[in-house]
UniProtKB/TrEMBL annotation:
It comes from the Eukaryota. It comes from Rotaria magnacalcarata. TPR repeats lie at residues 41-74. The lineage of its organism: Eukaryota, Metazoa, Spiralia, Gnathifera, Rotifera. The keyword Repeat applies. InterPro entries: TPR-like_helical_dom_sf, TPR_rpt. Pfam families: TPR_10, TPR_12. This is Tetratricopeptide repeat protein.
Length: 117
C-alpha cells in the first residue's frame, strides 16, 4: 500500500511525498519481509528514480547500486531489472556529465542483455 501511494505521487510529480512513502515502504520491507529481495530492490530503484528526477544524481546512484547489489547477490529476478539498474546508473552519470562513465554502464547493460536474451 505504501509503495502504491508513492507510485501515485511520483506520477503526479509530487516527489517529496513519493520519496516519503517509498522510504516508509522500504522500512516495512526491511523489518517485516527482509527475504523479499525483489520487493526491496524495486523500492530502492523507485527511490533512485525520485532522486534522479530531483537531479540528486549521487544519491540516486547510491540507491541504484544498492538494488543492483541485491540482484547480483541473490540472483537476478529478471534480466531486465539488472540491465535497468545499469542503465539508471548510466543516466545518473550522464546527468553529472560523466559521459565516459555513463557509457561504460550502458555497455554493461547491453552486454548483460546480449548474454541473457
Amino acid at each position: 500500500m505504501l509503495h502504491n501511494i508513492g507510485m501515485a505521487l511520483y506520477k503526479e510529480k509530487k516527489y517529496d511525498g513519493a520519496i516519503e512513502f517509498y522510504e516508509r515502504s522500504l522500512a516495512v520491507h526491511e523489518k517485516f519481509d527482509p527475504l523479499n529481495h525483489n520487493g526491496i530492490a524495486v523500492v530502492l530503484i523507485n527511490i533512485g528514480n525520485v532522486l534522479y528526477q530531483q537531479s540528486k544524481y549521487d544519491e540516486a546512484i547510491d540507491f541504484y547500486q544498492r538494488a543492483l547489489a541485491i540482484h547480483e547477490t541473490y540472483g537476478p529476478f529478471n534480466h531486465v531489472s539488472v540491465a535497468g539498474c545499469l542503465i539508471d546508473i548510466g543516466h545518473s552519470l550522464k546527468g553529472k556529465e560523466k559521459f565516459n562513465e555513463a557509457l561504460a554502464f550502458y555497455n554493461r547493460a547491453l552486454d548483460f542483455y546480449e548474454k541473457h536474451s
